[in-house]
Specification:
The chain is globular and about 40 Å long. The chain has one domain: Aminopeptidase (3-Layer(aba) Sandwich), CATH 3.40.630.30. 37% of the residues lie in helices and 29% in strands. GO terms for molecular function: mycothiol synthase activity.
Length: 189
Amino acid sequence: MINLRYETFDCNIHDVSKVAKLVYDVDFRTFDMLFKDESKAVETIARDLYKRDKDDYFKVVLDDYGEIIGILIIYTSKTSHNLYLKSPRLVIVDILDHFVLCDIEKEDFYIAEIAIDESLRGQGIGRKVLLDSIDYAKRKGYERVILDADFRNSGAKALYENLGFKVFNKKRLKIGKFERGMYNLEFKL
């Protein structure tokens, strides 16, 4: 198995375009609805990344050679969010997320986003990132790890359940033809 390293994202060190593409991959349906064009979405996400640079909750996942192979974004109830101006379309993504994503309680460790490079999917890397996250949360004394799985992503939901996550809530938002739904899942520590 590949050894993984986690570093706080730094736009002066890490490939911003690659990280932006991974962010896009997590929620491509919403980005496609708002931008109608993958390259515009990725470009806007990249500009946004420069504003949120060096936030400790935003990690890049690196392989043995220091290459970015994924991202991991985590929050806790103690996480302080840096406020900055965003593209209006990215603000819309945040608003839509508010209605379907997990509510973070006091002793929760929330995995907000996890993405593995498309060329490396299916090799157990995502599983390893999740197991590392669960181990970290245990060591830090959190009571549960929580995350979300899109209703349309049965593969992710199956992976999470295989690791012991259980659905504790379902949230759905429908606006006109747009519909988004999430399974909120928990792993009790």
